[in-house]
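WP5 quarterly update. Target: Peptide methionine sulfoxide reductase MsrA. Source organism: Streptomyces violascens. Length: 221 aa.
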Amino acid sequence: MIFGRRTPELPTPEQALKGRPEPEFTLPSRHTVLGNPLAGPYPEGFEIADFGMGCFWGAERKFWQTPGVWTTLAGYQGGITVNPAYEEVCSGLTGHTEAVRVVYDPAVVSYEQLLKVFWENHDPTQGFRQGNDVGTQYRSAIYTHTPAQEATAQASREAYQKVLTGSGHGTITTELLPAQGRPFYAAEPYHQQYLDKNPAGYCGIGGTGVSCPIGVAKAGS
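Structure tokens (predicted):
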């Protein structure tokens, strides 16, 4: 949260911290659960999906538990500051949300199925918060890598809004934007696979209890 303000707001470019040309840490080479490289190289034909759904500790675990996911990486995305540090992101002065990069085999799990994991495991109607976690860094977000991902994400959002509305929930506030021009910065090593290293650690995510209707959210439908 930006200090001195009661309601979280995204910083302007003038307000945002400048960051640094390089990260101040070395990323671990491999995923502690899946055993695959965190930062690549990734197998040919695999695809990347980026999601923000509150605290990235619990979000990352949801995706590494999904069959067909090859590796996951906790990080920061959608902001202004270059190579931000965790404390800077939490100040609200970088503009980033906590995000999870998901590398997956589309022959095993579809992007639509990953969207189902995304929608059902957080509340996408809460704006700059997720449960008791309040701040711009907890906003719901989807950053798409291809036109097909964008179309599928938009269709799924529309389909999920219908069932949320029918269940008495509010309007989806999820940020849906292209990943191009919005770099994904890996988080510090201690954040990577945090809940594998700390099984009793804080999770902080939870869904609305409303199922996402896979099958009616196909691109072009």
